[in-house]
TrEMBL record:
PROSITE patterns: COMPLEX1_51K_2. The keyword 4Fe-4S applies. InterPro entries: NADH-UbQ_OxRdtase_51kDa_CS, NADH-UbQ_OxRdtase_suF, Nuo51_FMN-bd, Nuo51_FMN-bd_sf, Nuop51_4Fe4S-bd, Nuop51_4Fe4S-bd_sf. It comes from the Bacteria. This is NADH-quinone oxidoreductase subunit F. Belongs to the complex I 51 kDa subunit family. NDH-1 shuttles electrons from NADH, via FMN and iron-sulfur (Fe-S) centers, to quinones in the respiratory chain. PANTHER family: NADH-QUINONE OXIDOREDUCTASE SUBUNIT F. GO terms for molecular function: 4 iron, 4 sulfur cluster binding; FMN binding; metal ion binding; NAD binding; NADH dehydrogenase (ubiquinone) activity; oxidoreductase activity; quinone binding. It catalyses: a quinone + NADH + 5 H(+)(in) = a quinol + NAD(+) + 4 H(+)(out). It is an enzyme of class 7 (translocase). Its EC number is 7.1.1.-. Residues 340-385 form the NADH-ubiquinone oxidoreductase 51kDa subunit iron-sulphur binding domain.
Length: 446
């Protein structure tokens, strides 16, 4: 059995309550950090752990903390990004619902490390019941002396606020989230200045993902070096994976980074394999914003090595033959899936969720949706395939925030790896536009 850092106690009855969480060793990290460590020592443990941001970018968390400006007389803030709106990703939702005190403990430890006396958890607006769970847990923590004034008699004060988002995917981008938190429209900001210098209310701010922060209690209790010993290379620790699609056992799984993709997909401990009677066609490893890969490239790298569930192995070969760990949204497609229809569906999402601030994203996502609609519904031309590639190139790298890249990469990779399927939709428009029609090499299943 793989080591569990985040979900070890997730099935303990009543673990969402303070009393049960405390009996399982909860809030020991708060006691240790506030009573025996300085804020700089907590930051140093985060650096030693090598933990990378679990929201998608994979930037080292300790390094990010080290960038925080500390001017005299100006407040500093920690903001937890719990917006999680990426299609195919639901692990933060699961963690907050089942283990709210783990996130709160991580917020206290992390806020102490950063010198923040007021911190925020920004939750996706559709998850109102999760917000109520968090608010109840915060009230329990405060009633037991772990939040508020003079926590545990150490002189450290912390107020923790839960804020609901407006249901906008763009607010998963950290500066758009800060704009929304300030009560403004969630448009991403130009950078620099970065949030570490001028973030929430123009004050130094760190924005971290739910899973990233929830790892900190274990890091403090066991040490950063112990955390870095788990995983492989620069992919340290464990990772929550949201597994969905055509598999036997969809759900949220905690894996040690470095696990083989094939083992994760086929092991009874995890996904349990492709649904019976079918075979793997393609896979999205890190949520809808990362490149899709065909079966032969998701199991093996272009060099013939086994593909691993790690930041480095998944990206091996670049976007020509690789993908990204991203947010861990593991979406599996068997041979009954239509890649064109799936790509069109993703493009509809990104067009709808674009804030419209940047012309390449605002116009480009709309064009990609229109062209893919044409191809899927039997009205496309061969020129449309290259047009999709051209549009994606004009979006990628030309927008204020990464939503443009997130919209472009799935389309470009789908055309790169499944061009023959796009061509079949164009050369066989009547068959392709039928409900349930799927390209299968020289044949189509209807």
């Amino acid at each position: 059995m793989a080591r569990k850092i985040l979900t070890e106690h997730i099935n303990v009855p009543g673990i969402e309550t303070f009393e049960v969480y405390r009996k399982q060793g909860g809030y020991a990290a708060v006691e240790k950090a506030l009573k025996t460590l300085t804020p700089d020592e907590v930051v140093e443990e985060a650096k030693k752990s090598g933990i990378r941001g679990r929201g998608g970018a994979g930037f080292p968390m300790g390094m990010k903390w080290g960038f925080l400006a500390k001017p005299e007389g100006i407040p500093r803030y920690l903001v937890c990004n719990a917006d999680e709106s990426e299609p195919g990703t639901f692990k933060d939702h699961h963690l907050m619902k089942c283990l709210p005190h783990l996130l709160i403990e991580g917020m206290i430890v992390s806020s102490y490390a950063l010198g923040a006396n007021k911190s925020f958890i920004y939750v996706r607006g559709e998850l109102m019941y999760v917000i109520r769970i968090l608010e109840k847990a915060i009230a329990e923590a405060k009633a037991n002396g772990f939040l508020g004034k003079n926590i545990l008699g150490t002189g450290y004060d912390l107020e923790l606020v839960v804020q609901s988002g407006g249901g906008a995917y763009i607010c998963g981008e950290e500066t758009a989230l800060l704009e929304s938190l300030e009560g403004k429209r969630g448009n991403p900001r130009n950078k620099p200045p970065f949030p570490a210098v001028k973030g929430l209310y123009q004050s130094p701010t760190v924005v971290n993902n739910v899973e990233s922060i929830a790892n900190m209690p274990w890091v403090i209790n066991n040490g950063g070096e112990a955390y870095s010993a788990i995983g492989i290379g620069r992919s340290t620790g464990t990772k929550l994976i949201s597994a969905s699609g055509h598999i036997q056992k969809p759900g949220v799984y905690e894996i040690e980074l470095g696990l083989g993709v094939e083992e994760f997909l086929n092991s009874d401990e995890y996904c349990g394999g492709i649904r019976k009677g079918h075979h793997l066609k393609a896979l999205v490893a890190g949520g809808s914003s990362v490149p899709i890969l065909p079966a032969h490239l998701i199991m093996k790298t272009a060099a013939g090595e086994d593909r691993l569930m790690s930041y480095e192995s998944l990206s091996d070969g670049g976007f020509a033959t690789g993908t990204m760990m991203g947010s861990g949204g593991f979406i599996v497609f068997d041979e009954t899936a239509c890649i064109v229809r799936n790509t069109w569906n993703f493009s509809r999402f990104y067009h709808h969720e674009s804030c419209g601030q940047c012309s390449p994203c605002r116009e480009g996502t709309g064009w990609m949706e229109k062209v893919l609609h044409r191809i899927e519904h039997g009205h496309g031309s061969m020129h449309d395939i290259d047009l999709l590639v051209d549009i994606s190139k004009k979006i990628e790298g030309n927008t204020i925030c990464p939503l443009g890249d997130a919209a472009a990469w799935p389309v470009a990779s789908a055309v790169r790896h499944f061009r023959d399927e796009f061509m079949w939709h164009i050369t066989h428009p009547h068959e392709a536009s039928q409900p349930g029609a799927v390209y299968q090499g020289e044949m189509a299943l209807v």
